[in-house]
Design brief:
The protein has about 220 residues and is an alpha+beta fold. The protein is built from ten helices and five strands, in the order αααααααββαβαββα. It has helices at about 10-20, 25-35, 45-55, 55-60, 65-70, 75-100, 105-115, 155-165, 185-200, 220, and strands at about 125-130, 135-145, 170-175, 205-210, 215. The chain has a five-stranded mixed beta sheet. Strand 1 and strand 2 (about 135-145) form a beta hairpin. Helix 2 packs across helix 3 (about 45-55), helix 6 packs antiparallel against helix 7 and helix 8 crosses helix 9. It is elongated, with a radius of gyration of 20 Å. About 25% of the residues are buried. The mean pLDDT is about 85.
């Protein structure tokens, strides 16, 4: 049955307008993005197939072009649209952070860093520099490495913190080849950075580890 034949309250677009986007399922949100289905499948049916194939909404959003375009009914145009949506979300969250009101919300920081790092094919080390009121001064990709390793130099991190006159910093890096579980090397690096920055009175507020599906906080884990 075509979506246009559904009761009005069950149609994804009408449901969103009446109850808000949070009321929709993952499949319904993807269906709105798709706009149309394929022969024999509504947009919602196609969206459900996509979510089953990739395993989750996060995995779908992280899919590369080849994997995305293998699905019948999709193509380069839809892939480009999805990348544009994700980039807009990242920039919108980034703008919110720079307004100085979002660092009170761990979820906002987590969402921003996940959007920034989850699709990277190599390890990237990011620093979010903040002032004494936790307002964002700058977000910088400080170091980039290989699939499994990034060299981070505390001296350079201290220089960037001083350049921005930062009072605090939040670190994040991704694990392209594994889960968001900190290694012993990650813990030692964070401890070294904390000691180096303490010498110039800059606090390390958190360190996030990002993978394709999740983001781990050192503070929540009790590692900082």
């Amino acid at each position: 049955m075509a979506i246009t034949d559904w009761p009005a309250d069950d149609r994804p677009r009408e449901k969103l307008l009446q109850r808000g986007a949070a009321a929709l399922s993952d499949a319904e949100l993807v269906a709105i993005f798709l706009r149309t289905g394929v022969t024999g499948k509504s947009a919602v049916d196609l969206a459900r197939d996509m979510l089953r194939q990739f395993g989750s909404l996060t995995a779908l959003c992280s899919a590369d072009q080849a994997a995305f375009c293998k699905i019948h009914g999709l193509g380069q145009a839809k892939f480009v649209q999805l990348q544009a949506v994700l980039e807009m979300a990242q920039r919108a969250l980034g703008e919110t952070l720079k307004q100085g009101v979002a660092l009170n919300s761990l979820k906002s920081v987590r969402d921003f860093l996940w959007l920034r790092l989850h699709g990277q094919l190599r390890e990237v080390f990011v620093a979010v520099f903040v002032d004494a009121q936790n307002r964002v001064l700058a977000v910088e990709d400080l170091f980039a490495g290989t699939l499994t390793h990034t060299s981070v130099y505390p001296r350079e991190v201290v220089k960037r913190a001083l350049h921005h006159n930062a009072a605090g910093v939040i670190f994040a890096h991704n694990h392209p080849s594994g889960v968001a579980e900190p290694s012993r090397a990650d813990e030692l690096l964070t401890a070294n950075l904390k000691r180096a920055l303490a010498l110039v009175e800059v606090s390390v507020l958190d360190h996030f580890v990002v993978d394709a599906d999740s983001t781990l906080s050192f503070v929540e884990r009790g590692l900082l």
